[in-house]
Design goal:
This protein has about 300 residues and is α/β, with parallel strands linked by helices. The chain folds into 2 domains: about 5-115 and about 240-310, FAD/NAD(P)-binding domain, CATH 3.50.50; about 120-235, FAD/NAD(P)-binding domain (3-Layer(bba) Sandwich). The chain has helices spanning about 15-25, 60-75, 125, 135-140, 155-165, 185-195, 290-310; strands at about 5-10, 35, 50, 60, 80, 85-90, 95-100, 105-110, 115, 135, 150, 170-175, 195-200, 205-210, 215-220, 230, 235, 240-245, 275. Strands 1, 2, 5, 6, 7, 8 and 19 form a 7-stranded mixed sheet that branches. It has a 5-stranded parallel sheet with strand order 10-17-11-12-13. Helix 1 (about 15-25) runs parallel beside helix 2 (about 60-75), helix 1 runs parallel beside helix 7 (about 290-310) and helix 5 (about 155-165) packs parallel to helix 6 (about 185-195). The protein starts with a strand and ends with a helix. The chain binds NADPH dihydro-nicotinamide-adenine-dinucleotide phosphate (NDP). NADPH dihydro-nicotinamide-adenine-dinucleotide phosphate binds near residues 152 and 160. NADPH dihydro-nicotinamide-adenine-dinucleotide phosphate (NDP) binds near residues 155, 156, 178, 182 and 204.
Length: about 300
Amino acid sequence: MTDTRHSKILILGAGPAGYTAALYAARADLRPIVLAGPEPGGQLTTTTEVENFPGYPKGVTGPEMMEHLREQAERFGTEVIYDLANEVDLSQRPFRVVGDSGVYTADALIVATGASAKYMGLPSEQRLRNKGVTACATCDGAFFRNQHVAVIGGGDTAMEEAQYLTRMCASVHLIHRRDSFRASKVMQARTLENPKITVHWNRTVKEVLGDDGVTGLLLQDTTGGADERLDVTGMFLAIGHEPNSKPFAGKLDMDEAGYIKIARPGSTYTSVPGVFVCGDVADKVYRQAVTAAGTGCMAAIDAERWLAEHS
Ligand code: NDP
């Protein structure tokens, strides 16, 4: 028989948003359960050094920081369960979540399932992930100081990442698969005017070169010309993110890209009363650990107040 667990607050996701929500909910004596999902610790577990989370003057590794966040949440009574939410029923209260190994009911639900950066799917790209291949300039740009790097993509994120990287890198090569950008005009103009950025139109990456670190890219001409080699030591993917919101499709209001919509500006309320959202699954602009943690705190406070009003 499947085990059913009830909690006042159930938190889906164990990244900075989920653990911060858990910390606040636990300190309010709400004994939250966190379902850790497919990637316990979230995107930070795939990065190496984190230097931009306040409170770590010497930096910290992503996995170590997530370990600290988990311990801190558990210290006040959070229970972390390593299960994956497959199905959610938000049509009645308590809400019901079906996981791989159990069923969970909750009076309030906090969605903190995060987002995943898209990768191109090349074996060489996967092999060199975090060894020169990354998807976050704000997180990792500082490791490429005075080096030549490439950014892949033609949207606003690619423009932003390329411009950011020009502050510390010797040069930035922007690789785009077509002959025009989809980014906003103002972002395009800033990119094209920046003397440190070279745009390579109509190019895709055929292979990331290097054994223990990136030494270059093999570029394919999408108009049929010859392949060419580009010498760079870093490759920043900026081809979009995917919010991890599939189980909520048709149940919570979302935008066209699948980011869960905030129902009341300045809060973490969703379209369903009693369901709150925090972190990257609702944020396509900032996407930082510290902003995720901030909204996690907001979600716990919103949920706690909502429970007090509705129980
Ligand atoms: P987008 O989906 O807008 O752009 C992705 C880019 O990556 C496109 O140029 C696309 O090419 C390219 N791409 C996609 N898949 C591949 C692939 N497999 N190989 C090579 N290239 C690929 O994503 P963004 O993250 O840039 O932006 C998401 C949303 O967030 C947008 O609405 C954007 O406006 C917004 N945003 C706003 C910001 C701001 O206002 N400051 C900052 C950042 C994002 P193609 O064009 O050919 O499809």
